[in-house]
Design goal:
The complex is a heterodimer of chains A (258) and B (251). Chain A has 258 residues and is an all-alpha fold. Chain A is built from 13 helices and no strands. Chain A is 84% helix and 0% strand. Chain B is α/β, with parallel strands linked by helices and 251 residues long. Chain B folds into two domains: 167 residues, Rossmann fold (3-Layer(aba) Sandwich); 64 residues, no CATH class. Chain B has a six-stranded mixed β-sheet with strand order 6-7-8-3-9-10, with helices on both faces. A four-stranded antiparallel β-sheet of chain B has the order 2-1-4-5. The longest helix of chain B is centred in the C-terminal third of the chain and has 16 residues. Chain B is globular. Chain B starts with a strand and ends with a helix. Classes of the chains: A mainly alpha (258), B alpha/beta (251).
């Protein structure tokens, strides 16, 4: 375990001494803030319109912060994560291979699994920081309004699980190449595919349809944003993460054989 | 200290190293010579446990590099052809990281760090970022990285390549200082370097050992250049078509 923490420390260190962390965090918060501002002002507009009309007060009661602000905010952030996460993970292995430092790692008394786990945990902590910082928006809502906390927590859990899947997939694509651009592009394709794979589910028939829906990260995420934590969703996220980590371990180990 | 036995490495159809055997005694410094592409780096990568051999065994300090990989790797310091530096880390942060992944106990790291910083002449650049160092300093950090955990065996792959004459002299002096306490394998194609620092010489060509002897025996009445060129041309002769040679004899 000590070796894993050493790798985690080194990885986090290189995120924060390079501009990567700051650029990504700033970009993410900037976009998040813009979404939040937009959603909230639309919510205000709707509310004032509803109240002006007859019977509006009752209708206005049906407008709630969870459905009109937090839920769309989560979905918007998820799309941003589809794009940003591969850029966070692209250097993880590609840079080691390009710079020859993987030779140091692979000749040290480290297990390949420790390297893979260390890099994964570091990126996981980083996206937790990233997503954690956006909690300022719901905090504002809690202070001025009364959104449902449970639903919000479930949504945040979903967002973190979704980002963790993307991290695991991004790390896997990074381990395939020594070119960071290729790592980022293939990571983006993979995360985007996970995001949209359920789209043809409606027309894909009785067998393929439910399968595509189950494979889609969006379906499970949307459920959690609605406040439903289904074991099937948790199993889905966990198995994707474990599968990607396992493949990464094999991929890194295979560097020895080339 | 290092025992290489019948080592063979194939990449698909290409045989990079073929049936190599040699040994290095404890405290000895071995010059590992050969033309470019003769299999030096491959052999060193196998000795360090970076890649497995197709067949054959390597024992480092009594531990098999494949079966007892962890114990063997703890006892090896390795400087690859280009020093494996993280460019965004400072010299001390980097060396501390290496000490940890080499399995050094935490309490011993500060002393080890001081020792290698002075030894490798890095005291002035401790807080500089690796990426901003000149080539000579990068090579020194690479060497510091290889010796920080005080390994019994040091594998150095062309440690003086691309350095200016003064840096070459410094690095050589440093390597010479390390002998005795460490067993060193030094690959190079600079022959005077071998004459100056090494005790034993192994010459390989096209993946085969063509010469293994003590330096003093080899250079009796001849220069190392002559020995080297003869050893290599011998190998080329052996590889030529057998029919041709029969033809020559008949004629």
């Amino acid at each position: 375990m000590r070796n894993v923490f050493t790798i985690v420390g080194k990885e986090l260190h290189s995120y924060f001494v390079s501009p990567i962390a700051y650029v990504v965090l700033t970009g993410f918060l900037l976009l998040g803030g813009w979404f939040f501002f937009n959603l909230l002002s639309r919510f205000n507009l709707l509310l004032s319109l509803y109240i002006q009309f007859q019977g509006g007060a009752e209708a206005a009661n049906r407008l709630n912060l969870n459905d009109y602000v937090i839920s769309p905010l989560m979905h918007n952030l998820a799309i941003v994560l589809v794009i940003l996460v591969p850029m966070i993970t692209m250097r993880a292995y590609a840079e080691e291979r390009k710079g020859g430092t993987y030779e140091l790692l692979l000749t040290s008394p480290l297990r390949t699994g420790e390297i893979v786990l260390g890099k994964f945990l570091a990126s996981f902590l980083f996206i937790c920081i990233m997503i954690g910082l956006t909690a300022i928006y719901p905090a504002i809502l809690v202070y001025f309004g009364n959104p449902e906390l449970g639903v919000m927590a479930s949504g945040y859990l979903g967002l973190i699980l979704l980002a963790t899947v993307f991290v695991a997939v991004g790390l896997l694509t990074s381990s395939f190449t020594e070119n960071q651009i290729i790592a980022a592009v293939s990571g983006l394709v993979a995360t985007l595919l996970l995001y949209i794979i359920g789209w043809p589910a409606e027309t894909a028939g009785n067998v393929l349809g439910p399968l595509l829906r189950y494979l889609s990260v969006t379906e499970h995420f949307a459920e959690m944003v609605r406040g439903i934590i289904d074991t099937r969703a948790l199993v889905y996220f966990a198995s994707l993460i474990i599968l990607a980590l396992f493949l990464t371990q094999r991929s890194v180990e295979s560097l020895r054989w080339r | 200290m290092i025992e290489v036995q019948q080592l063979t490495k194939r990449y698909g159809d290409l045989t990079a190293v073929s049936n190599i055997s040699f040994r290095v005694a404890s405290g000895q410094i071995l010059g590992f010579l050969g033309p470019n592409g003769s299999g030096k780096t491959t052999t060193m990568r196998i000795i360090t446990g970076f890649m497995p051999a197709t067949s054959g065994t390597v024992k480092v300090a009594g531990f098999d590099i494949f079966d007892d990989s962890f114990e063997a790797r703890k006892r090896i310091g390795y400087l690859p052809e280009s020093p494996p530096l993280y460019n965004d880390m400072t010299v001390t942060a980097y060396l501390r990281f290496v000490a940890r992944i080499k399995g050094m106990p935490k309490t011993e790291i500060p002393d080890a760090l001081d020792r290698v910083l002075t030894r490798c002449g890095l005291a002035k650049v401790t807080d500089r970022v690796n990426g901003h160092l000149s080539k000579g300093f990068r090579q020194r950090v690479g060497l510091a990285q290889a010796i920080i955990h005080n390994p019994e065996v040091l594998i150095l792959d062309e440690p003086t390549v691309g350095l200016d004459p003064q840096q070459i002299i410094e690095i050589r002096a440093l390597i010479k200082e390390l002998t005795g306490a460490h067993t060193v394998v030094l690959s190079t194609h600079i022959l005077p370097e071998v004459a100056q620092v090494c005790e034993k010489v192994v010459i390989i060509s096209s993946g085969r050992v063509v010469m293994e002897d003590m330096l003093e025996n080899l250079t009796k009445g001849q220069t190392l250049e002559e020995v080297f060129l003869r050893a290599i041309s011998q190998e080329e002769l052996d590889q030529s078509e057998p029919d041709e040679r029969v033809g020559e004899v008949v004629q």
